[in-house]
Design goal:
Blueprint (H helix, E strand, L loop, with lengths): L2 H25 L2 E2 L3 E2 L7 E8 L7 E8 L6 E2 L4 E3 L12 E3 L2 E6 L4 E7 L7 E9 L6 E8 L11 E6 L13 E2 L2 H6 L4 E5 L2 E4 L4 E2 L10 E5 L5 E4 L9 E4 L6 E4 L2 E3 L3 E4 L7 E3 L2 E3 L3 E5 L11 E3 L2 E3 L14 E5 L1 E2 L2 E3 L2 E5 L1 E4 L6 E2 L1 E4 L2 E11 L7 E4 L2 E10 L4 E8 L2 E11 L5 E6 L2 E3 L5 E3 L5 E8 L2 E3 L6 E3 L2 E3 L2 E3 L2 E3 L6 E3 L2 E3 L2 H7 L9 E2 L78
Parallel strand pairs: 12-13, 12-14, 14-17, 15-18, 16-19, 17-20, 18-21, 19-22, 20-23, 21-24, 22-25, 23-26, 24-27, 25-28, 26-30, 27-31, 28-32, 29-33, 30-34, 31-35, 34-36, 35-37, 36-38, 37-39, 38-40, 39-41, 40-43, 41-44, 42-45, 43-46, 43-47, 44-48, 45-49, 48-51
Antiparallel strand pairs: 1-3, 2-3, 3-9, 4-5, 4-10, 6-9, 7-8, 10-11, 49-50
Length: about 600
Amino acid sequence: MTCTRALRILPLIYPVLFCVCTLRAENAAQPGEVQPEPSTLHCLAVRWPVQGDDNENATVATAYRKKGADAWRQGYPLIRTIKAATGPQKGQWNFTKGNLGSNRLSPGRLYAGSIVDLEPETEYEVKLSLQDPDGGATEKILAMRTIGEPKTPPGMRERHVAPGAGGGSGAKEDPIKGLEEAFATAQPGDLFLLHAGTYAVKGTLNLPKGGTAEKPIVFRGAGDGEAILDGGGNEETKGRLISANGTGHVWLEDLTLQGRQYVIVAHEATNWVLRRCKFLKMEKGFTAHNGNYTRSRGHFISDNLFVGPTAWPRTKGIESYCGTYMSGSGHVVCYNRFEHVGDGMHGSGYGNLSASDIHNNDFNICTDDGLEADYSETNVRVYRNRIVNVAHGITAQPSQGGPLYFFRNVIYNATYSPFKLHNDTCGVLIFHNTCLRNGASFNIVPGSETVTEVVTRNNLFLGTAEAGLNTTGRMTRCDFDADGFGGYKGAFALWNGKTYKTADDARASGQIYANAGVVEIDPAACFASGLLPPADPQKEYKGDQLDVRLKEDGPAIDRGVVLPNFNDGFAGKAPDLGAIEAGQPLPHYGPRASAKQP
C-alpha cells in the first residue's frame, strides 16, 4: 500500500476505530462509590451508581456475614433500577452523593438492593461483586450494622404532669398541671411522665423544639392509668392536636391521642418514636411528609393502635382516613394495628420514601388500601404483614425504580387486587406472599399504563372465578415465575392484549413464564386448616381466625424456587409456596404484649 493510499484510507478508519472504542467504553461498567442506605432492625441496603453498561449485561452479586464469621452467605442480587418505560429519561437515573434522594444518573445506571432478615444491633460485612463481560469487574466489602429498638438514654430529667391548667414544678408531689406548659418549656433530655386522666386540649399543642439523639424529649404515660390527650372532638374536628414541624428526637409512648382531624403533624421532622399509643377519633394519625431522603430520617413507630370511623363493606368510595402518612428514609413501622381506616399507611409523593421497613403490622378494614408504598424510590421493604378486608392489599402507584420488596405478607379478601401496580410503576419484587380473594386470583389492571420490571416468585394467588392472572397494562420487562394459582374459572391469563387459555399455554408462549412456569393449586387441598378464598367479599373476616399454614402433603409444598436470603433454611427438597414455610409458626401481627418500656 502506498503512503498516498494509506493517507486516503486513514480518515475513513479512524471514525470506525473511535466508534468501536467509544462503544466499548460505554458498555464497560464504570463503578462509582457505593452508598450505604440507612439501616433498620432487620435490613441493610446499598445504592451503587455505575456509569457505562449501556448494553445492561452487568450484574452485582451480594454476600453477607456477621462480623468475625468465616463463611459468607449468598444474598439476592442488586437490581438495575430504571424509570418506567414511558418516562422522559428512559433507563437513566441521576445520582449524586450530595442528593441521595434522587435516583437519576445520566448517563449510567443505579444498582440497589437489600440484605433482609438480619438480627438487630449486629455488625455485618456486606460484599458486592460487580461483573461485566465488557469490563469493569469490581468487588467491594462494607462494614454495616443494624439498629436496635430505641432505648431511653440514662440521665433523663423526670418531670411529672397531671391534668389541669397551670402551675406545678414538675416534681412527683407537685406535677405540672396540663400539657401547654410542658410542651412550651420542654428541653432536650426531659422525660415527661403523664399521670392518669384526660388532658383537655382546646387549641393546638405546639412543640417549638426537639431533642437530640443523646437527649430526646419524651412524653410517656406514667403507668398509673390511661393518659388521654383529648382534642374535644372527632375525626371531623378541624385542626391539629400536636404541631411539631421540623423537630427531631421526640418520643410519645403509652398515651391515648384523640379528638382532632390531625393528631400529630411533624413535617420535615426526624427520629420520632411513637410506641404503645392509641390514635382514636382522627382522620390522620401521624403526618410527616415534605421531608426528603436526608432531611426526614429514622421514625420508629411500633406497637400502636390506629382506629378510624370506616365500616365494612365499603359504601362511600375512597375515604381519606389513615394511620400514618410519611416520607423520607430509614423509617421502621412495625407491630401496629390499623383498623377502620381508608389507608392503613399512606405513601407520599411529598418527599418520597426510601430504605424503610414496614413489617408485622395487622391491617383490618381499610376501605381503600391496606398499605401504600407509593412513591418509593429504593430499598423499601414490606414484609410479614397481615392485611384483611381491604380494597387493595399493598400498592405501588408508583414505585420509582425500586427495588420495592413485598414478601411474606398474608392478604385476605382484597376486593380489587392483592397488589396494586398503577401509575407506570417500576421495580417491584413480589416474593412468597399468600393472597386469597373472591374473583380473579391476581388483578393487575392499571388501564393502559406501563408496568415495568416487576418480578414475582413463590407466591400463592388463589381466587374463585374469572382469570388467574388478569392484566390490562403494558407489561414490560416483567419476570413472573414459580407462582401458585388456583380457583380461577376462566382463561388462565390476559397479558398484553392476548388471552392464554391455560397455564401451559402461557409458559409455551414464552411471554410470561420462561422457566418453572405456574404451579396449579387446588385451594381446598392447600391449607391444613381447610381455609378457602372468601366466598362473600362483603363479609368482615377476622384476621386471627385465618390460618394460612400449609397442608404438609399439599400442592404448595416444595414447589418454589430458591431465592437467596429470602427463603434460606427451607425444609424439604425446595422452598414452599406462600408466606409460611411448612412447619414454621405464624408470625406475630400487631402490637406485642411483651413490648415493655425499654
